[in-house]
Amino acid sequence: MIASDLDGTLLRNDGTLSPRTLRALRTAESAGAEVVLVTARPPRFVDRLAEAAGLVGTAVCSNGALVYDIGTRTVVSSRALPLATARRVATALAAAVPEIGFALETGSHVLYEPAYRLRLSEDIDAELPVPSLADLWLTDLPVTKLLAWSDRLDADALLAAAEEGAGGEVQLTHSGGRGLLEISASGVTKAGTLSMLCAGRGIDATEVIAFGDMPNDLTVLDWAGTGYAMGNAHPSVLAAIRTHTLSNEEDGVAHVIERLFGGTA
Predict the structure, then answer these.
(1) Claim to verify: residue 87 and residue 174 sit in the same structural domain
(2) Which of 59, 72, 106, 189 has the fewest Cβ atoms within 10 Å of its own Cβ atom?
(3) Three-state DSSP class for 66?
(4) Residues 22 and 115 placed together within one structural domain of the fold
(5) Which residues contact 21 (CB under 8 A, 6 or more apart)?
(6) Is 48 exposed, middle or buried (0-12, 13-18, 19+ CB in 10 A)?
(7) Do residues 162 and 95 share a domain?
């Protein structure tokens, strides 16, 4: 199995999948490897990528909260963040970080309160404002992630503040977004969900080749038989993972696949 993150890893900086990387993925699949996307992104983003590149198969989305069948556009399994837990964590973070804003990711939409001013142009159709922070907790939609955003702290500093104030109750990580913290239910990680997926397929960790660039990828890169940190990876990832490849702009994933499975640039 090849397990790859998307942003900053499989995709170039403009969000596209290069022809070389797409050819490499096809080569690996022809050789019998399954390609699984393992991403912080929700299914709706995977759908857009799949339409553009003709991808099928399985994706682990929302940092492990969802397993998604790309071909049928079906959530196969999910691990939701309890709304009461999200509210308690948000309360603790708000006390520690002034002017922090919050949003709830549901997989299909992002509900956000006024202090959450982060906007993603590619996600504009999925963003739903609510009048106040209190209204955020009235949703009856299942929550895959609590998003916390600050324009004062970078993601690493925000993560440190959250670990001190609320680290024991949830899974905290980030994927490099400016001042953006991603909060999942306790125990939900990319690696945990991928390992369950592999167990169901009879695939051992030693048979998995993984690629990633951000702290939320570390669990997968540690768990897989071979984990590759991208050349453009976060410093903590480059320090923790011994095996590196080229950057995403240099088609680092394709570079490894071509060496392992054949194929040319």
Answers:
(1) yes
(2) 72
(3) strand
(4) no
(5) 10, 251, 253, 254
(6) middle
(7) yes
